[in-house]
Amino acid sequence: MVAMKGIAGAPVSFGVFELTADQPLPDPKEILGPLHDLGYDGVDLGPVGWLGRGDELRRRLRDHELVLVGGWVDLPFTDDDAFRAALPALDDALEIFVAAAELDPSRPPLPTLADSGSELRRANPGGAAPGLALDDAGWTRLARNVETAAARVRAAGLEPTFHHHACTYVETPAEIDEFLARTDVGLTFDTGHLLIGGGDPVEGWRRWGSRINHLHLKDASTAVLDQVVREKAGMRAVWERRAFVELRAGDLDLDGFMDAVVESGFGGWLVVEQDVVPSPSDPPGRVIDDQRANREALRRWLP
What we know:
By secondary structure, the protein is an alpha/beta fold.
């Protein structure tokens, strides 16, 4: 029996995310409309403010019969001064999440906290190179600042989740273990980023399932990922070279993973992501075709 809150799409699958926020972005209806028509129940936030605020945000979501499920907020958790300076940005995002929660109080969005990483980590996706990991003092800072951010989220009436992510200080399975041991915040489990960090999604789901409160489902080509790591080409190359592919086109064991998710009784949102940086050479309609294929690939578990 499927216990999940629903299946959501994400602006990042259309090339709309923080990396592209300095470029002209499409009108939200160009993404919300197709997601609704393809059978998705919810949507991730995208860049803070892109979907609007207050009444405008609620109107857009209501018009397309979608629920806001979460949204990315990265903070420099390992730098105390930079973290304090970034807290107003968290408060600004929380206003949007609170406004969206009024539409469906039974399924409020989960503000998705993440570490900002560093230039060194961004140059070394995978986290395996020597000298990348935090020392004990660094972990103490990170955990303390995560606790502060989580308290802010909870004071707003919402529950936080934390996204392990490539090129941050919570990337590899060992780093996820350390994060979970030092905090009480739920985990956003991301299959694609776990593949980058050297983990196995099925094993990871079973290992951390009791702490997972949000799911980002993406497929990835490990051959492309391995080449980027070998070349030290950086995280942007992961997106530009389309390491993230439509479901069943990469190395994710989709059947094994989804069977494990359903068997666990997971009760959160499943957010389909296929991070891309669009190219003028992309065939017309490619992004819609990919999101249609992704939705169809999940019909067995989420009709």
